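To whoever picks this up:

The parser on our side crashed when reading a file containing two proteins. I've narrowed it down to the boundary between the first structure block and the second sequence. Both blocks are reproduced below exactly, byte for byte. First block:
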Amino acid sequence: MVFLLISLTVLHLVTLAMLLIATLEKSWWVWTDSEITDLWYNCLHDNATNTWLCAATNESDWLQSVQALMVLSVVFSSISFLVFLGQLLTMSKGVLFYFTGLCQAFAGFTAFAACLIFTFHRKEILNDSRDLSKGRFGYCFILAWLCVPLLLISAVLYVHLRKKQ
């Protein structure tokens, strides 16, 4: 039981960290190694100063929905972790962690929706005249996709987890 609790806590914290990185880092779409786009900025690497020069992205409805869904995913996962800690300390013996699992499932579904929207509407989101075949998905996009099954697995584990002592 203790091993399961520790494993589930580690899984939750790793997934939350991955969600934060996927939401805040700057690599959802890579044009070249020196030009990238994320949910918030378009960035260009300046070799002379060895810094990233970033400008705000062009706001579109699709981009705003992806931004909102990724932020909601982080919020749901954070709430889920805090509720889990609270339930762990205050719940009586034999009770299941339904609310924690529900919040974690919502986090998984919102991350899933954000990834789907970015996948199918990247032309409108990137709003660039260049050919999309010259770019590729960045590691933050891949991290967001990896979070989806991890969040849903942890949600199922929370729903089946029963407080023993």
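<<boundary where parser fails>>
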Amino acid sequence: MFVLQDISQNVKNIKPLEYEILARRLSLIKKELRQGVRKPFKEVIDVSMGDLHMAGLKPLSFVRQALAACLYPQLVNSSRLPVDARQRAQRLLAECVGGSVGSYTPTAGIPEVVQRISEFITRRDGGVPSSPDNIYISPGSQWCLMNILKVLVNSESSPRTGVLTPVPSHCTTTSSIVGLGGVIVPYYLTEENGWQLHVEELQRALDSAKGLCNPVALYIINPGNPSGQVQSRKSMQEVIRFVWEKRLFLLADEVYQDLVYGENSEFISYKRVLAEMGPPLADAVELASFHSASKGFIGECGLRGGYVELVNLDPAVMKHIHTLFSTDSCAPVLGQMALDLMVNPPQPGDPSYPLYHMETEHIRKTLVHNVKRVSEVLNSLPGFCCQPVEGGAFAFPRLFLPPKAIQKAKEMGMQPDTFYCVRLLEEAGVLILPGCEYGQKEDTHHIRFCIMSPQDILEEVLRRISCFHTQFMREVS
């Protein structure tokens, strides 16, 4: 039997998630509600995760119809499904070994699906070529990112490997870096400027790593999670020049690329910007770009389908990456099919297009409405400041807590924003997550919650937060 000292020190260095504190309280509250214990609310509203379907929005009909026929091939001949959904399922099944979703696929994914992802990338990027040989499908984009980090992070090196990582940032990524023996080199997004990235801050972060670690990569999230900003072309060009000059590998997490709401905001991929900058940068900067079927309008988080496209990597390195992905056999076949349906949705003239267009427009309009409402409500409450949400799935408002609240949190052994989230859960039945989970400047506090709920649910969340916040601030002021 292992004892604690036998566990990898890298694993022990991973910071426990604040979510665990809230998850234990949530479990207890749900149990009490089932037992009839009286509370100020009848049910808990969970807006802690970026899960479109958990938030209450419905799956896309075409996606589920095609997947249903893939799982139960008899439906391919059924008139109960639209003809284009049946044809898509028939094609996908023909591309599976044995005509079944239960069969293994090649390491990188079903070859025809990988080819169609490559064609999607070329269309998205205005004709910039994409090779299927540089694409790997895996069980979600984080799995892809983890594998690329395994290549970049040398746990035996001295000094240790560093990765420049945004603050705030996706906590799963930071945990992965630490678990592999790497060092987080934080760079801070500028909250008062809409969480924008400034290259001067990247230089400060790089300078701060001298003598502590050897930075080898820069991790970017665009659109931001949890910060919700969308990078401009000018900002991306500055980042690309920076990584080229400093010889850093560029990791571009672009999973929220379909969710952009800002009136003057537009998603542009790092690959496209790099290509359009031309030589020598276009031929030299090493880039890994990540996308996923979990996010965007498709929102199929549980099917576990993501991919990475690799740009400008040495062929010798690509051989090792192929070997690394091979250790996982293959990504779930339904996840691969979900990716295919995401990058090749129904087109005008197809039988499923009118319903598909109606459903995706409903989601888009819901999110645009929600973004405005979150900003209006939170910025009207004393002690809150919410920057405009330009993209992504979350609001990340700053919370100005009085000294009395901070002292109470300290007495409870909690971070101040965790204390706020626990009180909100217990007294208003809303589950959100604290900013300390994602990193924040010292002596600042935030909360993060998903904005992808149907309008009526979001209105109830905002009502509960408003009522709780008013009472809480009165108590601790």
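After patching the parser it read the second block fine. The chain has 17 helices and 14 strands. The longest strand covers residues 214-221.
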